[in-house]
Amino acid sequence: MTNSLFELIEKCKTIKDKDYPNTKDFIVEPLLENNDGFMVFSNDKHYSDKTDTFSKIAQKHFKKYPQQHRFYIYQKLNDDNKNNIVFILYNPSYATPEVNDPTINNCIYLANEDNRFSSVEILNVYSERNPNIKDLMGADNEQNIKFISELLKKRKNSVIVLAWGHKNIPSAWNPILNSLKENKNIEIIISTKSGTKIQIRHPGNQGWVSLEGFKKTAKLMPIKDINLTLEQLLKI
User: Is residue 194 packed enough to be buried (19+ CB in 10 Å), middle (13-18) or exposed (0-12)?
Assistant: First the structure.
């Protein structure tokens, strides 16, 4: 099943008319806000009757897109550039093909501002779409881990951005983290504000307000340029 997900994504990237195929396991939805790209969801209606405790904005988007998992986002940027960038976030929130959340918007902003990239891919440590992060520790994440492991093997020349913030990574992710130790293209998001401690940062707006806002103070930085190893960053 996981190989079929990777193969489905590669096929969809070649489709020009946004008539993306679905399967019994996955739904592919085109991005609608002037974007050339798509999102891949699980093929279910898990949240149809499970949104009572969500915020009003989350309820709106989860009811229209009730799928339990979002595995992937692809967005094409500038044809003149050659490189691909992969952001690894923590878990999907309410972003849908119709409306991005602030975190997705900030990832796209960073990729555009950097001006190295022709495309953006967005993954998550957990694939479950759940605004309540505390509920994720017991989530079934095996399919997502196998898919990400397969994709990252094929993206050895891509820039990989560790963008999940200060959150615990499940032990099942250790093989992926160990494989990244040999990757020379690992980057993080840092603040450009003088005196700010370098640390792995999540691209969501929360936490950047005191630093004059994300767009004013955030940038990508290769970990090799700040004399930190992946082991030091992740403490693995």
Answer: exposed
95 φ, ψ to 5°?
Answer: -60, 140
Q: Can you list the positions of beta strands (E) in 152-211?
A: 159-162, 186-191
Alpha carbon separation from 191 to 208, 209, 213, 216, 219 (Å, rounded): 9, 11, 10, 9, 6
Dist CA 236 CA 232 (whole Å): 7
pLDDT value of position 200: 76
pTM above 0.90, yes or no: yes
Could you read off the pLDDT of 151-180 as tens digits, one per residue?
999 998 999 999 998 888 889 999 999 999
Rounded Cα gap, residues 188 and 208, in angstroms: 15
Say which amino acid occupies 204. Answer: G
